[in-house]
Design a protein that fits this description.
The complex is a heterodimer of chains A (269) and B (232).
Chain A (H helix, E strand, L loop, with lengths): L2 H43 L2 H34 L5 H13 L2 H11 L3 H9 L8 H25 L3 H9 L4 H12 L1 H17 L2 H7 L9 H10 L3 H33 L2
Helix pairs in contact in A: 1-12, 2-6, 2-9, 3-6, 4-10, 6-9, 6-10, 7-8, 9-12, 11-12
Chain B lengths: L1 E10 L2 E10 L4 E6 L5 H9 L6 E6 L2 E2 L10 E4 L11 H11 L4 H14 L15 H13 L5 E5 L7 H18 L2 E6 L2 H7 L2 E6 L2 E6 L1 H6 L4 H7 L1
Parallel strand pairs in B: 3-8, 3-9, 6-7, 7-8
Antiparallel strand pairs in B: 1-2, 1-4, 4-5, 9-10
Helix pairs in contact in B: 2-4
Classes of the chains: A mainly alpha (269), B alpha/beta (232).
């Protein structure tokens, strides 16, 4: 064996060791949760409180992801396509809510919606988020929208703007070329962004806790159910809620990987 | 008739300077210049891709400076063809006709005619991603001409082809131009192509047009040292 071959093998072994350690760490962690929750899982899933938490988590994650999408598509497209004064500053400001710790973001939102003028306005618009389900949706949106914007910005940057221009020379308006050319070409990026944002929203805890509180059977999402039941010493329920969250996330992750794989296949066609 | 009058356009460090020419109806006008001379920017400006800083563009005496690309009725074929990868060849060709909400039977008739002229009938249900360079070029050309544009802009469309395919395409291009009589402006850096296709040629360099004339005038009677240097 030559000296170079020996070094190659050593290098690969070095990489393999770290992959193995990290994989074992993740698998063991999930396995312990599954093992402990499995005996009582079926009965706990039928529990009213857990069913409420599942429904509320799915509802708030879905609604907040839709709102994120409504905001993220035009913002990301604008940042990807146009050069304008202050673009860098706007880009940085948009990413702030994703960079600050969730708890700090939550208390900031709570303070904002506790000021008289904003509270009055929010009440008038029927958007009173403090200690309500709307607060969970708002917290999810505040934390996850920048993440979605970042993914979609990259996706739109990958679509050749000249394709849109060709579409326009063929009679499409700027809206027409966006919907007939850009959106279909950005489809896989959009799907990935939706899946990732939805997964993040499923597990959002800190910001929502500050703004919407942890009120049993009112603002009790699955992460809040874990927190409340663990605090009350009800380990079985907490583990069941965690298992449900993990299973949903793994399914979504699998879907995300499928979309990515499909995307790579198309590019390499 | 297309009239481009004293156009100025600054794009970063590059500048189009006093671009001034006329193209008669049905004429085949070729802009000849080296890479980076601003030929493609001239075409994109005519098609409405850029707002010009100064100057005017007229089609049949109508100023089109403020008319958006979709209302200029100008066909554009890029060097890299830019077929829509999410659509089939058929859908690519029909794209402009569908936008015009044309009757389905008329659309199919036009599609049949153009695909038979360009010999792409067998490709209609294929994805553009599976086509060769020459096939992509013919499809992109078909997509641009089916809408019967007033002016057709071709940006170095044969530069990526092998010599044999290129010659064949140039022959077809001349034939189709005679048949459709569409006012055409083509950009190229290939002298032989310009001589073969053009009614008149414009020599371009550094964002300026140095000379406009027939192939004979340009190659036998260059007006300036810059043109002489370029054609030698």
């Amino acid at each position: 064996m030559s000296k170079n071959n020996y070094k190659d093998i050593l290098f690969k072994v070095y990489i393999f060791i770290f992959i193995t350690i990290f994989m074992l760490f993740i698998i063991l962690t999930i396995f312990v949760v599954f093992q402990k929750s499995f005996p009582n899982l079926a009965s706990i899933i039928m529990d009213k409180e857990i069913q409420f938490a599942i429904k509320l988590t799915l509802y708030t994650s879905t609604i907040s992801t839709i709102i994120c999408l409504i905001f993220a598509v035009p913002i990301a497209y604008g940042l990807a396509r146009y050069d304008f004064f202050g673009k860098m500053i706007i880009n940085s400001i948009i990413q702030i809510s994703n960079s600050i710790p969730p708890i700090a973001a939550g208390i900031a939102l709570l303070m904002l919606f506790s000021t008289k003028q904003v509270e009055y306005m929010a009440n008038k618009l029927g958007l009173d988020p403090v200690f309500s389900v709307k607060g969970i949706i708002l917290a999810n949106f505040f934390i996850n929208a920048p993440y979605m914007i970042r993914i979609l910005k990259g996706t739109f940057e990958d679509v050749n703007p000249k394709l849109e221009f060709v579409g326009r020379t063929l009679g499409c308006s700027v809206w027409g070329s966006f919907f007939k050319i850009t959106i279909p070409l950005a489809k896989n990026g959009l799907i990935s962004a939706i899946i990732i944002t939805w997964i993040n929203a499923l597990g959002e805890f800190g910001t929502a806790l500050m703004l919407a509180g942890a009120i049993r059977m009112k603002t009790e999402t699955l992460p809040v159910a874990i927190f409340l039941n663990l605090s009350a010493g009800n380990l079985d329920k907490a583990l069941a809620a965690a298992t449900i969250l993990i299973v949903i996330s793994i399914i979504c992750l699998f879907l995300f990987e499928c979309v990515q794989k499909c995307n790579t296949k198309k590019v390499n066609y | 008739m297309l009239k481009v009058e004293h156009i100025y356009k600054k794009l970063g460090d590059f500048e189009l300077c006093d671009i001034n020419f006329k193209v008669e109806d049905g004429e085949y006008f070729v802009i000849l210049g080296s890479t980076g001379s601003g030929k493609t920017i001239v075409l994109e400006t005519i098609a409405g891709g850029y707002n010009i800083d100064r100057g005017n563009i007229y089609i049949n005496d109508v100023n089109i400076n403020n008319i958006p690309p979709e209302n200029r009725n100008i066909g554009f074929v890029y060097q890299d063809y830019l077929l829509f990868p999410h659509l089939s060849v058929r859908e690519n060709i029909l794209f402009g006709l569908k936008t015009k909400k044309m009757d389905r039977s008329i659309m199919n008739e036009i599609l049949h005619k153009i695909s038979s002229i360009l010999n792409i009938e067998h490709l209609l249900d294929r994805s553009p991603l599976t086509l060769s360079g020459g096939e992509q070029q013919r499809v992109a050309f078909a997509r641009a001409v089916v809408t019967s544009p007033k002016i057709l802009l071709l940006d170095e469309i044969s530069s990526a082809l092998d010599p044999g395919t290129k010659k064949k395409f140039q022959h077809n291009l001349k034939k189709i131009h005679r048949e459709l009589n569409t006012t055409t402006i083509q950009v190229t850096h290939d002298f032989n192509e310009a001589i073969y296709l053009a009614d008149r040629i414009a020599i371009m360099g550094n964002g300026q047009i140095y000379q406009i004339g027939t192939a004979d005038e340009i190659f036998n009677h260059p007006k300036s040292k810059l043109v002489e240097d370029f054609i030698r």
